[in-house]
Each structure stands twice: as structure tokens, then as C-alpha cells.
Amino acid sequence: QVQLVESGGGLVQAGGSLRLSCAASKFILGLNTMGWYRQAPGKERELVADITNGGGINYVDSVKGRFTISRDNAKNTVYLQMNSLKPEDTAVYYCNAKGGYSVPVEYWGKGTLVTVSP
Asked: Which candidate, 99, 37, 97, places its Cα nearest to that of 67?
């Protein structure tokens, strides 16, 4: 079973930076998109950013210009550099990977907490 292992969360003051990392524990057949979602207390989980194996990138509007997603295909690893953090970025951040060929597969990490203090 594939596991996505996240690291890099923590507590930071507003305006600060954090870098999240997520590595797949083993090869994912047909891996295509890797990304980050977040869920704040009392809110639904939302896509923060994702990146395809071809380099196509999507960001939610609220993080554009502040967050940067990148990927190391050789290591099946995805990163999220978060700058100019705001209290409203406080959430549990989840890594996600989608792949497969005839049968789509999707994997989730356990989540890492990011807390931004005012």
C-alpha cells in the first residue's frame, strides 16, 4: 500500500514562511497529479495547489503569488513553499496523489498542521 508522508508543518507568525514536503513510500503506477489540499476548522477541504507530471500547475486564488508548488518526479515528491503566511492559512494540509491507467487510484497523506499566529 502506498503511503504519502508529509513533513514541514508547524507554528509560524503572520508574514513568515514554511515549506511542506510529501514523499510517496513507493512507486505509484501511472502517477499523474500531486498536490496539496487543506481543511480549516469548520470548513470543507479545498485544493490549495496541484501539479501534473507535465508541469501543469493550479493554485487556489487565495494563495496565488504567495505559495509555490514544485515536484521531483524521480523521487515522487511534491513540495509547497508557503511565503507571506496569513492567519487564514491555518489548516491541516493534506498531500494528494492521483494516478493509475485503466483503474484510477488516489492516495492521501495523514495531514500536517500549519498554524499561523497573528
From this structure: 37
User: 13, 115 in Cβ contact below 8 A?
Assistant: no
Name the maximum alpha-carbon separation found in the chain: 47
In 3D space, the residue among 80, 93, 95 whose CA is nearest the CA of residue 25 turns out to be 95
pLDDT tens for each residue of the chain, 118 residues long = 889 999 999 999 999 999 999 999 888 888 899 999 999 999 999 999 999 988 999 999 999 999 999 999 888 899 999 999 999 999 999 999 998 888 889 999 999 999 999 9
CB 90 within 8 A of CB 115: yes
